[in-house]
Specification:
heterodimer; A: about 325 residues; alpha/beta; Rossmann fold; seven-stranded mixed sheet; five-stranded mixed sheet; 13 helices; globular; B: about 280 residues; about 40% helix; binds thiamine diphosphate; binds magnesium ion
């Protein structure tokens, strides 16, 4: 069994590293510091931690001001409340003036589980991606999250980091290299490519080995950097495989699947199948049951691959 | 209902909350238990409702702005007969009706979908404005949390309710002094709340939120106030009725284990026995 850790957990740890390295790093939360894992930073650096209470608009607005005055704020809450409640603060107070705010959002997607549809952000990537100046990052495991958080701190400008509640398998070691704007080809294949991010990456890898047993050669590409998107790699891979499946824990409208389709549509028209939530809200339930119910599984990816292969042959 | 009957109802609601959360293995006990007396008084005495006709146009409305306390609402609805009590055991489970936070599309008796804090009072105002437009005399109740007071939208709604003289709106503040990250005073101080609501031109009533007689009197008073909205600031104890949960921020969003649930139910059954 692979080790498992939630991306939010890795975020909390990375913040401690940043706190020690850079006195300009400050952290803000909105009464969810235990869940978003900013609580350890709060304990270690209380003078650099600001709990804004249950007030997300004020959370993001204050982060904008801190950035305008030279700090590197990491503002955390659940994805639904950051992107949802504070959208226009993000758009006009952070992205428009290109301020150096890191929106570190946890509890994205349906793997939020029992809290239900009201708490499961399934449209946050679409919304953040549509905002000029915004960088959108969706790490797949603990190690990638660590690197994403450090890279976000290095980068000057607004970054949206999408993380999850659920423990997910550790996929990468320290030799792994995340870079903003770069996709990572995890596995090279010739028949079809699965381009995934977040919790779907580990399933993509599993689907690829199952398909290998069936004689299908699958490329797996981890697209953690949804924006900027690594168009070069995506086009190059699509040219070889001539069939692409995208996979994300997000609505199929506006997320990774859309981003890939936009690029391929213009530069390398390729048969595609998008795996994601089929324009529906989630509901309460155990995270793994919900992934099953909403078709975010290895089996569903295998099915999607066969579907896209059939399109390719037409 | 008499005071003693309402106390019994509140006790049953508390038992339901515990057993639901034990089965669900997740959920929010603290803020559900603190609101049990308020919700019992509303649903079993104050509100004009008909469980056989959940969408009755003349009904009073209830908005659980602090939506995470859904179990207290679900229990009251089940005890009133809106749906079978067995449904309570499906709380938070895949494919079941009772969502982690109230969902008006899925659950009969739920007047507004909530769960994202700060939005409920605005929705209550909207229902109240519609009632006035339609010449209906129904009333709208909204239950708010004290941590929730930090949301700007609450104060936007407070201003609007007074501006539009919504005397058909009654807010109830579950003033338990705790939120997730600790005491409300330490996370984001919203005091002094009584003065704030008065300054927003609301009629303010302060009560002990576990004193049924005081709650009955407060609701009776709210009904007589004309030309402005009323807020009942109900001083409560988070986790009320279960000794080890009382006044503990740690019991905000953690379900009791089977053993803890047994202990809690034992205490609540003893309380019921004492009520006679
Ligand atoms: C907009 C929004 N932000 C954050 C949350 C997460 N959350 C759920 S309950 C809660 C604390 C609520 O405290 P309070 O209002 O005092 O409720 P109570 O003590 O009655 O449970 C928080 C932060 C939420 N549901 N909605
Ligand atoms: Mg409270």
């Amino acid at each position: 069994m692979a080790n498992k850790v939630a991306t939010r957990e890795a975020y909390g740890k990375a913040l401690l590293v940043l706190g020690a390295e850079n006195p300009n790093v400050v952290v803000l939360d909105a009464d969810l510091s235990k869940s978003t894992k900013t609580a350890d930073f709060a304990k270690k650096y209380p003078e650099r931690f600001f709990n804004m209470g249950i007030a997300e608009a004020n959370l993001l607005g204050t982060a904008a001001g801190l950035a305008a005055a030279g700090k590197i704020p990491f503002a955390s809450t659940f994805a639904i409340f950051a992107v949802g409640r504070a959208f226009e603060q993000i758009r006009n107070s952070i992205a428009y003036p290109k301020l150096n705010v890191k929106i570190a959002a946890t509890h994205s997607g349906i793997t939020v589980g029992e809290d239900g549809g009201s708490h499961q952000a399934i449209e946050d990537v679409a919304i953040m991606r549509a905002v000029p100046n915004m960088v959108v990052l969706v790490p797949a495991d603990g190690e990638e999250t660590r690197q994403v958080v450090l890279a976000a701190a290095q980068y000057k400008g607004p970054v949206y980091i999408r993380m999850g509640r659920l423990d997910v398998p550790l996929l990468f070691g320290e030799e792994y290299r995340f870079e903003i704007g770069k996709a990572n080809v995890l596995k090279k294949g010739t028949d079809v490519a699965i381009m995934a991010n977040g919790v779907m990456v580990s399933m993509a890898l599993e689907a690829a080995s199952e398909l290998a047993d069936q004689g299908v050669s699958v490329s797996v590409v981890n697209v953690a950097s949804v924006k900027p998107l690594d168009e070069e790699t995506i086009v190059r891979i699509a040219k070889t495989t001539k069939a692409v499946v995208t996979a994300e824990e997000h609505n199929i409208i506006g997320g990774l699947g859309s981003a890939v389709a936009e690029v391929l549509g213009e530069k390398q028209p390729t048969p595609m199948v998008r795996v994601g939530l089929k324009d529906t809200f989630g509901e309460s339930g155990r995270p793994l049951e919900l992934l099953e119910k909403y078709g975010l599984t290895k089996a569903e990816l295998v099915k999607a691959v066969h579907e896209v292969l059939a399109k390719k042959q037409r | 209902m008499t005071t003693i009957e309402l106390k019994r109802v509140a006790n049953v609601i508390r038992q339901d909350i515990i057993s639901m959360l034990v089965t669900a293995k997740s959920g929010h006990p603290g803020g559900s238990l603190s609101a049990a007396d308020i919700v019992a008084t509303l649903f079993f005495n104050e509100m004009r409702i008909n469980p056989k006709d959940p969408r009755w146009e003349e009904r009073d409305r209830f908005v659980l702005s602090k939506g995470h306390a859904a179990p207290v609402l679900y229990s009251a609805l089940a005890e009133k007969g809106y749906f079978p009590k067995e449904e309570l055991q499906g709380l938070r489970q895949t494919g079941h009706m009772l969502q982690g936070h109230p969902d008006m599309k899925k659950t009969p008796g739920v007047d507004m979908s909530t769960g994202s804090l700060g939005q409920g009072l605005s929705a209550a105002n909207g229902m109240a404005l519609a009632g006035k437009l339609d010449g209906k005399d129904y009333r709208v109740f909204a239950l708010l949390g004290d941590g929730e007071m930090a949301e700007g939208q609450i104060w936007e709604a407070a201003m609007a309710a007074a501006h539009y003289k919504l005397d058909n709106v009654t807010a109830i503040l579950d003033f338990n002094g705790l939120q997730i990250d600790g005491a409300t005073d330490s996370v984001m101080c919203s005091a002094p709340l009584t003065e704030k609501w008065r300054a927003f031109c609301w009629h303010v009533i302060e009560v002990d939120g576990h004193d049924i007689d005081a709650l009955l009197a407060a609701f009776a008073e709210a009904k007589t106030v004309k030309g402005r909205p009323t807020i009942i600031i109900a001083k409560t104890v988070k986790g009320k009725g279960v000794s080890f949960m009382e006044d503990q921020a740690g019991w905000h969003g953690n379900a009791p284990s089977v053993e803890q649930g047994e202990q809690a139910l034992k205490e609540l059954r003893e309380e019921a026995a004492n009520l006679g």
